[in-house]
Amino acid sequence: MAGVSTATPTRAPRMTAVMRERETVTPLELFFDLVFVLALTQCTALMADDPSWEGLAKGMLVLGVLWWAWVGYSWLTSVVDPEEGAVRLAMFAAMAALLVAALCVPEVFDETALVFACAYAAVRLAHIALFLVASREDRALRRAVLSGLAGSTAMASGLLVGASFADGALQGSLWAVALALDMAGPLFFGQQGWKLMVGHFSERHRLIVIIALGESIVAIGVGAERSVDAGIVVAAVLGTAVAAALWWLYFDIVALVAERRLARATPGREQNVIARDSFSYLHLPMVAGIVLLALGLKKTLEHTDDPLEVVPAFALLGGTALYLLAHVAFRWRNIHRFSWHRLLGAALLLALVPAAVEIASLVTLALIAALLAALVVYETVRFAELRDRLRHQVAQEPG
Fold first, then answer.
1. Beta bridge partner(s), residue 372
2. 280-304 b/e (C-beta count within 10 Å ≥ 16 → b)
3. SS3 202
């Protein structure tokens, strides 16, 4: 027809955020998560250098702060495509800032405190900026970012900067308040306006659990600094068995059912609250438990024939117990069923702490491996029919 142009309009280069259209985790997100691997390793190293109750508390505070930074990006990249437009460059900048923060962890309560606080603030600032770009045409999302996320982020970052000029109990208290305010933001500022892609969101959290379990394997290698003898070989095998059991307890059924529960929730408030509670909140004690286990494994490999000191013993046994207790809460939040057998397993692990300071660390590790193996076998046999039905039902649901 005359007067109608048939030329294909050229597409202007994208310099803004592009909304996510695919469920799969992108290579850039995996690249981003690799920086978090270093952060986990550094938290373990921080506690290993100071295996005291104070050192343990400091390590958990740092882990919590870094975890919440990672959580923010898991929500962000469930809204925007990280490999399109200006988001890619912003992600690289956030990775650099997170790397600097991770490098500061060994001296985070001393010489590198201010550098860490500034790097962390930069990570969170990039997160807020990207959310604002992504919400240009979504008033509900922009309102949620400005009214809640920006405020809690600013307060937490400011408190960490203030903590860098303090020391002792005051510094630790400022860190604790900063973490509490940051994580409490979603509770006080509502759950409306946020969006997520269920498959992508749950996969990001599955991958971060694998990354944390990988840290426990790394801890075995770091702890085995002396020549490889029979004790090291046995400890390495037992450590791998423990990590494999933790993997089984999460990935065999729990992760699949949690994703299905999230997918069946009504998009909006209901889905956002489940995502917040089950993934953003309850995955933290899972990861923390694995990091504590890594600390215990590292100390075990250093002296397999000697008993553990009380703090490393608590880390080894208490960390594993914390992982199981997080699963108990996770199951209750998702399907309102209580896992008495996992609760019992956690109680038995904690009851072994007094014995662990008297017997060889290798024996303690063997007891943990045996208890977890028994738990896996019990659940596999006790719930065989239900397990088989759920696994196939989940597998057959469209992705």
1. none
2. bbbbbbbbbbbbbbbbbbbbbbbeb
3. helix
In angstroms, the CA 143 to CA 30 distance is 29
pTM higher than the cut 0.85? yes
Cα-based angle 212, 256, 215 (whole degrees, multiple of 5):
5
What architecture does CATH give domain 198-399?
A: Up-down Bundle (1.20)
pLDDT tens sequence across 5-15: 444 444 434 44
DSSP-assigned states of every residue in 340-378: HHHHHHHHHHHHTHHHHTTS-HHHHHHHHHHHHHHHHHH
CA distance 198 to 23: 8
Alpha-carbon distance of 129 to 157, in angstroms, equals 15
Q: How many CB atoms lie within 10 A of CB 154?
A: 16
Residue 80, classed as helix, strand or coil, is: strand
Dihedrals φ, ψ of 381, to 5°? -80, -45
Strand partners, 80: 19
Q: How many helices (H) and strands (E) does the chain have?
A: 17, 0
The first and second tokens of residue 349, run together, are 């692990």
Distance CA 13, CA 9 (A): 12
Q: How far apart are CA 399 and CA 397, in angstroms?
A: 6
Distance CA(340)–CA(6), nearest Å, equals 69
Predicted confidence at residue 23, as pLDDT, reads: 81
pLDDT tens column, 276-307: 999 999 999 999 999 999 999 998 888 888 89
Residue spans per domain, the chain: 21-195, 198-399
* Diameter of the chain measured on Cα atoms: 93
CB 54 within 8 A of CB 109: no
Joined tokens for residue 204: 């990001």
What does the DSSP assignment read for 320-332?
Answer: HHHHHHHHHHHHH
User: Residue 26 CA to chain centroid, in angstroms?
Assistant: 18
Q: Could you write out the three-class secondary structure of 244-270?
A: HHHHHHHHCCHHHHHHHHHHHCCCCHH
